[in-house]
Design a protein that fits this description.
Blueprint (H helix, E strand, L loop, with lengths): L1 H6 L8 E3 L8 H5 L3 H12 L3 E3 L27 H10 L1 H4 L2 H4 L6 E7 L2 E2 L3 E8 L2 E8 L5 E8 L2 E5 L2 E5 L3 H4 L9 E6 L5 E5 H6 L2 E5 L4 E5 L3
Parallel strand pairs: 1-2
Antiparallel strand pairs: 3-4, 3-5, 3-7, 5-6, 6-13, 7-12, 8-9, 10-11, 10-13
Length: about 220
C-alpha cells in the first residue's frame, strides 16, 4: 500500500480485496470465525478497490468450490451466528462503499509505539462529502499500544501537480484546528462514542490500545 501511494494512489482502486479463491483453503479454514477473520474482512470492506466474498464465506462453509462444481459435496449447515455478525459488522460497511472506495481522500498512517513504527498495525482514513472514517486493525496475536499522529509519505494533489508529503491525523481527517472545536465519533465494533478536541488530534494524534487482532472502525464523525 505504501509503495502504491508513493507511486500512483489511483492504482489502489484497481485492487481486488479477498480472503480466498476456489483454489485456496476457504476463509474459515485460514482465518477462523473470530477477530482475525473479521479484522481481515473489515480491511476488505473498507480499503479502496473491490471487496469480494467467496462462495459460502458468510455462512462459514469449509468446502472449496471450483468453477466446474455442479453441486455441493459436503452437507453443511449455515452458521447463523456468523451470518448475524456479518449483518451487524460487515454489511453496514459494504453499504457505505462510497465512503471507502475512492483514493482522493485516502490517507495511510504510521502507528508509533515509542519511537518505532508498529508495522503490524494498519490505520487509514477516508472521506466522502462530509462523512469521514478512520479504521485501525492490529494484524498480530499480541496486544499493542500505539499513537497515530502522522501519515506515511504519500502523493497528494497540489496546485502544481502532486508532491510527496506527510500530514497530521487532523489534516488527514480535515478537522478544524480551532481549539474550541471537538469531534464526536462512534466505533461500529463496540457501539461506543468518543469525544476529542480537534487541536489535540492535530498536535498529539490519537492513542489506541489494541488487543490481538482487534479492530476499530470509527464512523459518524461530527
Amino acid at each position: 500500500i505504501k509503495n502504491t501511494l508513493d507511486f500512483k494512489p489511483k492504482i489502489l482502486k484497481r485492487f481486488v480485496n479477498l480472503l480466498n479463491t476456489p483454489k485456496e483453503k476457504t476463509a474459515v479454514e485460514q482465518f477462523g470465525k473470530g477477530d482475525k477473520y473479521f479484522g481481515a474482512m473489515t480491511l476488505c470492506a473498507t480499503l479502496p478497490g473491490l471487496p469480494m466474498l467467496g462462495h459460502g464465506q458468510v455462512e462459514g462453509f469449509t468446502e472449496r468450490y471450483g468453477m466446474e462444481y455442479r453441486r455441493a459435496y459436503y452437507d453443511e449447515t449455515p452458521d447463523q451466528g456468523l451470518i448475524d455478525y456479518h449483518q451487524q459488522q460487515i454489511f453496514p460497511l459494504l453499504k457505505k462503499r462510497y465512503l471507502f472506495a475512492e483514493v482522493e481522500h485516502f490517507v495511510l498512517y504510521d502507528a508509533y509505539t515509542g519511537d518505532s513504527v508498529d508495522e503490524n498495525v494498519l490505520v487509514y482514513s477516508n472521506q466522502s462529502g462530509q462523512e469521514r472514517s478512520l479504521v485501525a486493525f492490529n494484524n498480530t496475536n499480541a496486544e499493542t499500544k500505539v499513537w497515530v499522529r502522522r501519515s506515511v509519505g504519500q502523493s497528494f494533489k497540489t496546485g502544481l501537480g502532486r508532491e510527496i508529503r506527510q500530514v497530521s491525523l487532523g489534516e488527514g481527517l480535515r478537522l478544524s484546528f480551532d481549539q474550541r472545536t471537538f469531534s464526536i465519533y462512534r466505533d461500529l465494533v463496540t457501539g461506543l462514542e468518543f469525544l476529542h478536541n480537534n487541536q489535540k488530534l492535530h498536535e498529539q494524534g490519537l492513542y489506541l490500545e489494541l488487543g490481538p487482532y482487534q479492530r476499530k472502525v470509527f464512523l459518524d464523525w461530527r
